[in-house]
């Protein structure tokens, strides 16, 4: 045990104290100890104790209790409106499905409980009474920035294949290296990832993609990721042979992922945006590769992958749309940034504000990742676009039927019928976006009877 202090929230200190006063030992454990040691603020505080589930229930009988995890020895106590998970020290029985222990066995000592945890940096416990409990060198690995399995890596990954992806996730999020023995074992056992539930894969993948070390991990472990995302396999080492691209397709993809903000939708979009390229490639007489239609092909691949990985519908649909239109032209014929109002309004009409902003970011990242542009150039283009968009939006312009100053009833009163009503509304909206008529009722009704609206 070492004397290192962690400042516990008062509710957590109270929970530990009450367990102690009833004669049980108790510690905070896992992610919160790791994050506190790194100087980060933990997003939750897990507690483990020598008390058995019934005994925990007895100690906190006057508090609100949630029993969902009780089978695994976990009871949730709500204190100050915050839920805290309290778990009896346990070890896992055997893992016949490589994912879930067949049984859990309660034990009396915190060190035994720590020995079932995945990585040394996650296998530390702390209490004000006993200080830090770190039997596997977690502190040292935090200092050396290493992800290392507790115990024999192959055995630990065989028990639970999700740990393979957790290793990559923590290495990405904390920008740590992976210890050589852990690295070798996770590569060897990567094919067993097919036993892990899609939801769990997706959760870890998204965190991995949003980590500070994502580029390094994507470069070093594409084959591991391809075990559950085979859609990326054709991109690995793929030579594009195109004069707009300096890098192979996987390196381009990695750079594009790094080039967008750490937002799940944007990062996944960039991971998948060019997956359709190998399948649609044609090669001209000069040996140059062309990829016409890759946007749609990538969107179709994305749809399959995202459905399989059980992304929520809203994220899935957004990602498919952004992949589909990732390189929709945002420039004039002469290559300059298109800040034309009518042009921007039509894009807003087509995609909505949030997606237009996302497309600006996607363009910046995609262009930079070609290797033939500079950060300065792309940043300037990006800012010019954003400034023009902000200025335009500050005037509350109309770019959807919802905010058009006339509606279907107005057109009925003006004598239109059936599908003509929809056509005329669309025609008026386009005229407003093109600056041909003001978005005012009278002006719009008058415009309807003008020859220009006859088409
Ligand atoms: P996060 O910041 O994502 O919550 P965390 O380390 O707290 O990170 P959790 O999934 O909340 O991760 O798990 C809490 C603790 O439980 C971990 O720190 C680790 O000690 C242990 N743990 C979680 N998943 C596994 C696993 N698959 N195998 C072994 N131990 C695990
Ligand atoms: Mg946690």
Our count of domains comes out at: 4
Task: Give the bound compounds.
Answer: adenosine-5'-triphosphate, magnesium ion
Helix content: 40-55%
Structural class comes to: alpha+beta
Strand content: 5-15%
Number of strands: 13
What is the number of helical segments per DSSP (H or I, 4+ residues)?
22
Shape: globular
Low-confidence stretches: none
| Mean pLDDT, all residues | 94
Distance between the termini: 83 Å
* Radius of gyration from CA coordinates: 28 Å
Task: Let me know the largest β-sheet.
Answer: 7 strands, mixed
Briefly, what is this?
By secondary structure, the chain is of the alpha+beta class.
Topology of this structure?
Elements: H1 10-21, E1 26-29, H2 31-37, E2 46-49, H3 53-59, E3 64-66, E4 74-79, E5 82-88, E6 90-92, E7 104-106, H4 110-115, E8 125-127, E9 131-133, H5 138-143, E10 146-147, H6 153-159, H7 162-173, E11 177-178, H8 180-189, H9 198-209, H10 214-220, H11 222-226, H12 249-259, H13 264-272, H14 277-280, E12 282-283, E13 289-290, H15 294-308, H16 313-324, H17 341-351, H18 353-368, H19 375-394, H20 408-413, H21 419-433, H22 441-448
Parallel strand pairs: 2-5, 10-11
Antiparallel strand pairs: 1-2, 1-8, 3-4, 4-5, 6-7, 8-9, 12-13
Helix pairs in contact: 6-8, 7-9, 7-10, 10-12, 12-13, 12-18, 13-16, 15-16, 17-18, 18-19
Summarize the structure in words.
The chain has 455 residues and is α+β, with helices and mostly antiparallel strands. 48% of the residues lie in helices and 10% in strands. It is built from 22 helices and 13 strands. The strands form four sheets. Strands 3-4-5-2-1-8-9 form a seven-stranded mixed β-sheet. Strands 6-7 form a two-stranded antiparallel sheet. The longest helix has 20 residues, at 375-394. The protein is globular and about 90 Å long. The mean pLDDT is 94. Adenosine-5'-triphosphate is lined by residues 30-31, 46, 117-118, 122-123, 160, 162-163. Residues 30-31, 46, 117-118, 122-123, 160, 162-163 line the site of adenosine-5'-triphosphate (ATP).
